[in-house]
Each structure stands twice: as C-alpha cells, then as structure tokens.
Amino acid sequence: xxxxxxxxxxxxxxxxxxxxxxxxxxxxxxxxxxxxxxxxxxxxxxxxxxxxxxxxxxxxxxxxxxxxxxxxxxxxxxxxxxxxxxxxxxxxxxxxxxxxxxxxxxxxxxxxxxxxxxxxxxxxxxxxxxxxxxxxxxxxxxxxxxxxxxxxxxxxxxxxxxxxxxxxxxxxxxxxxxxxxxxxxxxxxxxxxxxxxxxxxxxxxxxxxxxxxxxxxxxxxxxxxxxxxxxxxxxxxxxxxxxxxxxxxxxxxxxxxxxxxxxxxxxxxxxxxxxxxxxxxxxxxxxxxxxxxxxxxxxxxxxxxxxxxxxxxxxxxxxxxxxxxxxxxxxxxxxxxxxxx
Length: 341
Description:
Blueprint: E1 14-18, E2 22-27, E3 31-37, E4 40-43, E5 49-52, H1 54-57, E6 67-70, E7 73-74, E8 77-78, H2 81-95, E9 105-110, H3 116-128, E10 133-138, H4 139-146, E11 157-162, E12 167-173, E13 176-183, H5 187-202, E14 204-205, H6 208-218, E15 229-236, E16 242-248, H7 249-272, H8 276-285, E17 287-290, H9 299-307, E18 311-313, H10 320-329, H11 332-338
Parallel strand pairs: 1-9, 9-10, 11-17, 17-18
Antiparallel strand pairs: 1-2, 2-3, 4-5, 4-6, 7-8, 11-12, 12-13, 14-15, 15-16
C-alpha cells in the first residue's frame, strides 16, 4: 500500500512479527505488548473462537472432538486467512487494551521469498483486523535491525533468522538486501522430526508440545560435553496404552540432523553467492543468528565448524524481528527504502 508522507508513526501504530510459532506485537513508546503462540482454538460446530494464543496452546492435543486447535500461519505464511484475521484482531485489540475504534498502521515482517499471493494474504488479514495501512518488510532485514547490526553502512552483514516456520538468510549492505533466501525448514520441522524419530524407534506417539519440549530440553546441533536424558510420555502404538521411555541427547541430535544440515547448506550457498568485498566483511564480523531456534544447543558451533566463520547469537533472539520492525516504525525514511509492498 502507498506510504504516507509523514516523518514518523503514531503511538497507536503497531509493528508485528506474525510468526508460525509465536506472534509478537510492538507498540511505539511501550515496547513489546503481545507475545503469544500463533494458535486459535475454534469450535467446529459453530465456527466460534474458543481461545487464542496461550490459552489455545494449552488445548493442543487435549481438545474435545468439536474443538480444533489451529495454527493459521504455516512455514511463515498465512495458510488460513479467516482464522489469521480472527487471531490478529484478538492480538491487536489486546495491544490497544481492548479499544475497539483504533485503526493502526501496521509494519509486518514476511519471509524473503514470499509470493505476491502470500503478500496479499498478509495485507488482507491486517486490513480485516482494522489496519489503516500495511507495510511489509523482509524478516531477515528487521531481524538484523533488531539485533543491532549496522545495516545502513557500506559493509556486509549476514543475518540468519531461524523461527518456527522458516529460516531467512540475508546479506545486507547500505540498507539493501544483496542476497536473500528463505528455506522452509525451522523449529516446527524439527519438532516433527523428533516426533517421527520416537515413533519409528520406540513405536510411541507423542504430541507436538511434547516433541517441542524434547527439542528444547536436550536437542542439539553438535555433540554436547555431557550426556543428557529425558523421560518421555506418550501412547504405545502396539498396545494402545500410556507408556514412558527415556531418550538421550545423542538420539535427538540424530533426529534433528537432517533439518540442521538443510539450514547449514543454505548458509553455505548464501556465502558462495556473496560478492567478494562483502564476504571479507562477513569474515571479520561473523554471522548473526536470530529467532527462537537460534537457541538450539551448539547450533552456533556447528555453523562455525562448517563455514570457518565466527557465529554470534543476538542478545534477544526471540524478539529481534519485532524489535527491528518497531525501530522501522520510528525511522520512516528507512522504512520507505526497505518496504517490499
């Protein structure tokens, strides 16, 4: 949508990280005002929303037959327009303390390789959630800004934003994206891999919440210095009764190996595609990791071993993208340069 010729955004306007796993909203002057799972519990009989966010996540795997817990954003893009609209409306009202007649302008981060159809879906959802204007920016760009990287300088900066649905990789210089790639391998694919591994090896069915917990508690991208183990509860596929098993970190690293390798390959391709002068800058400054999955144990070490470059994890990896989007709200000239509407 067209940008208004104003110098800054109003305090009611919102910066939004509409993520596959979580949605974060930043309000000018107040900081992050919403940080909740991107999940909606819907009554299948009536179509009514039963719960949104944290309350809906608590229902995962525990809902009665007439209630479905839906993730309307998948692999970084909107898969269910109507449910996304309801979720976004709920979060926007929460950000504005339940005020109904506010029509904020919104800045929203999207994956680097988002299609025109996917862009329209994001804009339409935001407009239906009472936005007056919508500005889209690349997820990796806002993550870099939020991580404090000098994106406006004439030097190479590489950021790897690993969220729930996508891994966004970008090389940035002079407020522009020199190289960008988005691969749809990230935290949720890793959760699925853990659940599938346990199913194949132990004939035990576990839910997505359990798989995510296993990944967080004992998952890693490279060998750990000590062995870690965890009791896992699920349903035995053969006897159809509850059962508890014990898994260790080596097993979960094996389960995650394919997903981690896909991310590392994408980073190597990005480095091979970077102009020599910018490559020299990246060699000196290193690669910055953002996003919740950047916290996977030893992921930074694995990337360093495979690329030979220093790797740093952003100070606030979970909120880097929304913080960067919030900073863009206050720097209209930079927003105009990086907007991809």
